[in-house]
Amino acid sequence: MATSATVTKTNTKKKIDSKTMMIGGALLLAAVVLYKYMNDPITTTAVLSSTIRQSTPLVLGALCGLIGERSGIINIGIEGQMLMAAFVSFLVNVYTGNLFIAITSGILAGMGMGLFLAWMSIGLKMDQIIGGTVINIMALGLTSFFYQVGLTTKGKLPSIPLGPLAEIPLIGPVLFDNPPITYLTMLLVIAVQFALFRTVWGLRTRAIGEHPSAADTVGINVNLTRYLNVSFAGAFAGLAGAYLTLEAVGSFERGMTNGRGFVALAVMIFGKWTPLGSWGAALLFGFASAYQTQLQFSGNIEIPHQFIGMLPYLLTIIVLAGFVGRSRPPAAVGQLYETE
Fold this sequence. Notes:
By secondary structure, the chain is mostly helical.
C-alpha cells in the first residue's frame, strides 16, 4: 500500500511539474511574441498568420491518424489520402466551378481511401503498414497519371474577416481573418477532443484501441466500429487535401502534399494521440515552416535556401527521435482482432 501511494504521489508530482513547465513555456512564448510585435508588427503578424494556415493540413491529417489509431488501426496512408483528395477536389472544381461541391468531393475521396484501408486491414487481414503504403503509392500513381497540365481552378476560398474581431491588434489578423477551412479546423479540433473523451462514441473508440476483447464482451462490435471510424477519419484527410488545392494554393501539382501526411504522423505522436495536443504540435511545425519562409524572403542570412527549407523536416526528425519512445500509443494498435 505504501509503495502504491508513493508511486501515485510521484506520478501526480510529475503531472504538476509538466503542467507548470507548459504554462511557463506558454508565458515565455507570449512574452517573446509581444516583444517582437512591438518592434516589428508587420513581420510578426505575417509569421503568426502563416503559422495558423501552415498548421491546418497538419492537424487535419493528425486527426485522421489519431482516430484510426485510437481505434486500433495504424494509418501511414495519410499522405496518399490527402493527395487523392486534393486531386479530386481540384478536378471537380475545374469542371463544376462549385467550391462547396469540390470540398465535399475531396472529403468523400478521403473517406473512400479510409474505407479501402479498413478493408485491407480488417477484411483482407493485410499488414496495416503495407496497407498504408499501398494507398500512398496508388494515390501518387493515379494523380500523376490523370493530371493534365494547364487545368486551372475556377475560384479559390477567400479570407473572411470576422467583423470587429479581425481588427484587434495582433490577435485579430491571426485568428479572425482566415479562409473557411482554417476556421472549420479550429472548431473540429475542439469538437473531436470533446467527442473522444466525453461521449459514448469516444469511450467505445478508446476501448477498441486499448482492450478490444473487453469491448467485445460488453457488446461492442469491434471490427464494425473500426470500419466506421477509419472511414470517418478519412474525412479529415480529405478536408486537408481540399484545403491545399482550394484554399492554400488554388491549383494542383504532382506530389503537392510534399510529405505533410508523414509530418502529420509526427504531430500525432508529439501530441500524444489527443486532438488538442496534436494542434499544439501542428502549430509548432507550422511556425517552423512560416519562419523558414520568412527567412528566405528577408535575404539577411547568407545561407543556401535549401538548408533553410530543411527546418520543418529537421524538427520532425528531432521530435520523432525524442518523443516516439516516451509517448505511449493505444495498446492494441496494429493488432488484428478476430472474434472467437
